[in-house]
């Protein structure tokens, strides 16, 4: 019988803890929001590694095109000299 009566009535300590928990949550809510926004921005922003990889890929492509045209033009010039 004692257990039924004790569970239905809240202890003052439990009420106090619940009230403190609510106050702490209200206090930390802006801090939690700032942390969440910071983590979200970090996830959505392109990393320095991705930017470097794109730049390197573009440079390799441009160097490949340059080498292709350089080799084609230099062999055509050599053929022109040999015909003379």
Automatic annotation (TrEMBL):
TM spans (from-to): 51-71
InterPro entries linked: TRIQK (IPR024842)
Grouped into one coarse class, the protein's main location is: endoplasmic reticulum
Query: Organism's domain of life?
Result: Eukaryota
Gene Ontology cellular-component terms for this entry are:
endoplasmic reticulum membrane
Give the UniProt subcellular location, in the record's own words.
Answer: Endoplasmic reticulum membrane
The protein's topology relative to the membrane is: Single-pass membrane protein
The UniProt keywords, alphabetically, are: Endoplasmic reticulum, Membrane, Transmembrane, Transmembrane helix
Q: Which family does it belong to?
A: Belongs to the TRIQK family.
The protein's name:
Triple QxxK/R motif-containing protein
